[in-house]
UniProtKB/TrEMBL annotation:
<dbReference type="GO" id="GO:0046872">
    <property type="term" value="F:metal ion binding"/>
</dbReference>
<comment type="similarity">
    <text>Belongs to the HemJ family.</text>
</comment>
<dbReference type="Pfam" id="PF03653">
    <property type="entry name" value="UPF0093"/>
</dbReference>
<feature type="binding site" description="axial binding residue">
    <location>
        <position position="11"/>
    </location>
    <ligand>
        <name>heme</name>
    </ligand>
</feature>
<feature type="binding site" description="axial binding residue">
    <location>
        <position position="88"/>
    </location>
    <ligand>
        <name>heme</name>
    </ligand>
</feature>
<keyword id="KW-0472">Membrane</keyword>
<feature type="transmembrane region" description="Helical">
    <location>
        <begin position="6"/>
        <end position="25"/>
    </location>
</feature>
<protein>
    <recommendedName>
        <fullName>Protoporphyrinogen IX oxidase</fullName>
        <ecNumber>1.3.99.-</ecNumber>
    </recommendedName>
</protein>
<keyword id="KW-1003">Cell membrane</keyword>
<feature type="transmembrane region" description="Helical">
    <location>
        <begin position="123"/>
        <end position="141"/>
    </location>
</feature>
<keyword id="KW-0812">Transmembrane</keyword>
<comment type="subunit">
    <text>Homodimer.</text>
</comment>
<keyword id="KW-1133">Transmembrane helix</keyword>
<comment type="function">
    <text>Catalyzes the oxidation of protoporphyrinogen IX to protoporphyrin IX.</text>
</comment>
<dbReference type="GO" id="GO:0070818">
    <property type="term" value="F:protoporphyrinogen oxidase activity"/>
</dbReference>
<feature type="transmembrane region" description="Helical">
    <location>
        <begin position="83"/>
        <end position="102"/>
    </location>
</feature>
<dbReference type="InterPro" id="IPR005265">
    <property type="entry name" value="HemJ-like"/>
</dbReference>
Amino acid sequence: MDLYLWAKALHVISVIAWMAGLFYLPRLYVYHVEQQDAVPEMVPVLEVMERRLLRAIMTPAMISSWLFGLIMVGMGGVDWGAVWPWLKAASVLAMTWFHFWCAGQRTALAAGHAQVSGRGYRMMNEVPTVLMIVIVVSVIVKP
């Protein structure tokens, strides 16, 4: 049984779950902001969905992504003299910042203090896509 391959498989699974949440949560915020006046009875439903997505899926997936990623790094084999691991590391830190930004937005929305418009959340929804592209190209192409 190869520990590296297990760590890699669990890392990929965790990242997929984390990314799914990072793609979906800002979209829920768009609905939340745009429906709070038009259909106010939807707001409590959206708040439950946002909270559960963040707590039950995204945060555990983020933690396990970091855990299994660090296990692989700890096993060696990364050429830290190359550009790609630093590019990936910076992008993962940015992705983690985005996760916590989303968590802060959930708290603000639950308190009734929308800090961003629906259009702003739509734009922020592109952040994880750009970071994912940088990460995948860094790891596969190794520029």
